[in-house]
Protein: histidine kinase
Amino acid sequence: MDLLRRSWRDWLGDLGAVGAAMLLGWVLLQGTVEDLPPGETIAVRRDVLIGASTCVFLLLFRRRHPVAVAVTMVFAQWAATTTLGTAAIAMYSLAMLRPWRIALPIAGASLALIIGLFWIAEAGEDFLEGSVIFALIYAVLVTTGMLVRSRRQLIASLEERARAAETEQRLRVEEARLLERERLAREMHDVLAHRISLLAVHAGALEFGPGTPEGQREAAGVIRRSAHEAMEDLREVIGVLRDDAPGADPERPQPTLADVPGLVEESRRAGGRVTLEQNVPDPDLVPSRVGRHAYRIVQEGLTNARKHAPGADVRVCVGAGAELDVEIVNAMPPGPPSLPLPGSGTGLVGLAERVALLGGTLEHGRTGDGRFRLRARLPLRAAHGAGTGGKGGTHGSELL
Structure:
């Protein structure tokens, strides 16, 4: 099963390791044959066969059982010269796949066994030379294996951090969307409650008015009762979004486009250099739904400017035509960037939700001259058609 799960990269690495073991073993065998004392021989075929068997063992089990393979190779070195190469590559695999606390003692024991074999077979300079060469080979292989292991662990850690960061960002975005939708639902509840209550009041006045014909009185009663039921249904549906604690302060009235100058003035009092260009003949004529979203867009733009470009000039432009055009542009401060205030980075996500509900468009990003621009286009005709009352429709035609 382990063999079937290996990728082509793993097989390529395994074949490379086996090839290196065979090459090193063959080189050591050739050196041993050339340096044999007169009258002594070595069974080359037997030696090669044993070395090939250990290479197959290395190929099959080096990844799943590196410790067992390395320990087996320590004792297999007594059997044939070619197994010295297999044992060296087994130590490399052990250092690559297991911690140094396991790899170093086994590699040290294998090297000590090799030096012992040299001490038995060689003497003088040959013993010293062989010991130094094998010590260097083991040092290079074990160190390389440990470096490869460290690099793989670092890459795995970075990938895990990237996945965690992506997941966290995705959760923050989803949370921001849910919170913004909840806030929008609460705002719409207040607006609809006001409109429906007015409808119920006028229908009641028509129903119980002294001069109302009987047929209209009955129709007005149906309208009044339907409005009352609609209020109850709306309260039940939106009530699950209400998470205010008992005794909490009541919500403030929702802002409109006419409150934008006050918002800009607050930023100026806080030390901001904000310029307001408002090309709207009468902000009170803008539908409250559109004005409320425009106010939030300006508020978010000024907040971002204070966070990411403190002390920079900010220009707020609000114009009304076929659409309500809201634009906030801030210059990037000179010199090195200052430390920004902490934030979730999801404010623009909420603005996108608001603009999408109105069928508008939202753009944000750096401009070619090094400034940052936030621009939203909110349709006015769609807002009137969505239901702002007959008076609002008249105002809209005057505004456009």
